[in-house]
């Protein structure tokens, strides 16, 4: 039995805060990364081709553009998450945080049945491979303060402000 050879496609989107890159396989989005990422994702061992017309990449770019324009509050994309069971649980919990809301790391840990795993949640969120779609920007300190974010706190603040403004209009 041979291992499956997976080809990945990549496309980019200019966001108000910098370039976003989407990398996807035929299974779904593997990565969405910031131009200036505190936790850069490595594509070294991956066969990645520039192809913004790839169906998953094109859909992700469209939906991200709509979100950044304030026209979308949720995403409908297949994901190709690769991580430990704990990381995937933490990342899936992010998808359940409502648009325009925030939770603490402790609340996120409790939501996956691991109330004492606050630091591990922070670490998993720092390795979130699909930023914005899995909204780790909605996780804040226990006192409501903005804490660590791979794209920088200015980006986290920008995303939360966008959602706050859109929620206020609804």
UniProtKB/TrEMBL annotation:
<dbReference type="GO" id="GO:0003908">
    <property type="term" value="F:methylated-DNA-[protein]-cysteine S-methyltransferase activity"/>
</dbReference>
<dbReference type="InterPro" id="IPR036631">
    <property type="entry name" value="MGMT_N_sf"/>
</dbReference>
<protein>
    <recommendedName>
        <fullName>methylated-DNA--[protein]-cysteine S-methyltransferase</fullName>
        <ecNumber>2.1.1.63</ecNumber>
    </recommendedName>
</protein>
<keyword id="KW-0234">DNA repair</keyword>
<keyword id="KW-0963">Cytoplasm</keyword>
<feature type="domain" description="Methylguanine DNA methyltransferase ribonuclease-like">
    <location>
        <begin position="11"/>
        <end position="81"/>
    </location>
</feature>
<keyword id="KW-0227">DNA damage</keyword>
<dbReference type="Pfam" id="PF01035">
    <property type="entry name" value="DNA_binding_1"/>
</dbReference>
<dbReference type="InterPro" id="IPR023546">
    <property type="entry name" value="MGMT"/>
</dbReference>
<dbReference type="InterPro" id="IPR008332">
    <property type="entry name" value="MethylG_MeTrfase_N"/>
</dbReference>
<keyword id="KW-0489">Methyltransferase</keyword>
<dbReference type="InterPro" id="IPR014048">
    <property type="entry name" value="MethylDNA_cys_MeTrfase_DNA-bd"/>
</dbReference>
<dbReference type="InterPro" id="IPR001497">
    <property type="entry name" value="MethylDNA_cys_MeTrfase_AS"/>
</dbReference>
<dbReference type="InterPro" id="IPR036217">
    <property type="entry name" value="MethylDNA_cys_MeTrfase_DNAb"/>
</dbReference>
<feature type="domain" description="Methylated-DNA-[protein]-cysteine S-methyltransferase DNA binding">
    <location>
        <begin position="85"/>
        <end position="164"/>
    </location>
</feature>
<dbReference type="InterPro" id="IPR036388">
    <property type="entry name" value="WH-like_DNA-bd_sf"/>
</dbReference>
<keyword id="KW-0808">Transferase</keyword>
<comment type="similarity">
    <text>Belongs to the MGMT family.</text>
</comment>
<dbReference type="GO" id="GO:0006281">
    <property type="term" value="P:DNA repair"/>
</dbReference>
<dbReference type="GO" id="GO:0032259">
    <property type="term" value="P:methylation"/>
</dbReference>
<dbReference type="Pfam" id="PF02870">
    <property type="entry name" value="Methyltransf_1N"/>
</dbReference>
